[in-house]
Design goal:
5-stranded antiparallel β-sheet; transcription cis-regulatory region binding; single chain
């Protein structure tokens, strides 16, 4: 019900808890941020301000100069001081109330990569941590920041209206699905287990959209973002659902770790318009799925006859044959685009 999400951050800067609605504001899944350093999410210029507000006296010990603050967790834990409760002001004192603004990394399309959040809350003791000091004695509970994080700019009516339709999926770097939110399960009809069992994830993409999606996939691996991509996804009922998607790379310690895709369902007319625009600047008619550029009489090894007679899928995917190496079954690599087409149910076309 909040226009925001709940955040609990320990004195060392680890996210102890975040409500699942963090996904609606920053695009990160709750599971991906919990027990991670909060400083990986915060704009470099705002990290010191956050560190200051974590400290009971707004005066944290300085992080060692030789360690960049971007490494947040590491430099902070080395400079975190443990206090006995009697060294701290009482928990209900107004001295421990906090209200400040920080820019957080945001994977959603309507942001410039960061979203300014107002964090309002207080420092309270975080019990049950069972931490031990170097000599093995139990440490007393330490103060943690309990805050409600709300966007500085209230969302527009349009954002509130369209937010109900948008769903997000998480993928490995080769696009293999890892997770899907509740709205995605409603739109597509699959359970998370069904999505994960199917290989690279291109099995859910319409054959005439595969090369287009693969091109944007390659662009995202180079630049970090795919740009808006409109394509058809196969639902559990064997129907095609148009979506407008934007994929972003999520980095950890400077290396790409996984992909988050934000997707908005479109009506068929919108999808058709995008398809027409797309086929205008491609050297072959993708609207029908016949890639004239690759048309040839060469029969594909082991390609089932009734499927080949469809023409649509086999022709548009000629390219991908060279794209994947040979594999155990009829010479087609199952993780190639052609392999993905062959795993689809031809009745869907």
């Amino acid at each position: 019900a909040l226009n925001g999400f709940v955040l609990v951050v320990t004195s060392e800067g680890l996210i102890f808890y975040s409500s699942h609605t963090i996904q609606d504001y920053l695009g990160f899944h709750q599971v991906d941020v919990m027990h991670q350093s909060v400083f990986e999410l915060i704009h470099a210029e705002d990290q010191q301000e956050f560190r200051r507000n974590l400290h009971w006296a707004l005066n944290p010990p300085h992080a060692p100069e030789d360690k960049p603050s971007a490494e947040g967790g590491k430099s902070l834990s080395s400079s975190a001081v443990t206090y006995k409760p009697d060294q701290l002001p009482p928990e209900n004192s107004s001295f421990l109330e906090r209200s400040f603004v920080c820019r957080f990394r945001c994977l959603l399309d309507n942001s410039s990569g960061f979203l300014a959040l107002n964090l309002q809350g207080r420092l309270k003791f975080l019990h049950g941590q069972n931490k031990r000091s170097e000599d093995g004695s139990a440490l007393p509970p330490q103060l943690a920041l309990f805050a409600i994080s709300t966007p500085l700019q209230p969302p527009s009516i349009l954002q509130i209206r369209t937010k109900n339709m948008i769903f997000r999926t998480k993928h490995k770097l080769d696009f293999t699905p890892l997770a899907c939110d509740a709205k995605g399960k409603i739109v597509l009809g699959y359970t998370e287990a069904e999505l994960r069992m199917c290989g690279t994830g291109y099995q859910f993409v319409h054959a005439a959209d595969m090369l287009y999606c693969a091109e944007n996939h390659v662009r995202m691996m180079k630049t970090g973002e795919s740009g808006l991509t409109v394509f058809r996804l196969l639902t559990k009922e064997n129907r095609w659902k148009w979506v407008q998607a934007n994929a972003r790379l999520v980095y950890k310690n400077g290396k790409p770790e996984y992909i988050i895709v934000t997707q908005r369902p479109l009506v068929d007319e919108e999808g058709g318009e995008h398809l027409q625009k797309r086929s205008m600047h491609l050297p072959f008619t993708f609207a029908t799925g016949e890639a004239l550029l690759y048309q040839s009489a060469y029969p594909l090894p082991g390609f089932p006859d009734p499927f080949q007679s469809k023409g649509k899928t086999s022709k548009s995917k000629k390219t991908s044959h060279s794209h994947g190496g040979r594999s155990q079954k009829n010479g087609v690599d199952p993780s190639s685009l052609l392999g993905a087409v062959m795993q689809q149910d031809k009745a869907a076309y």
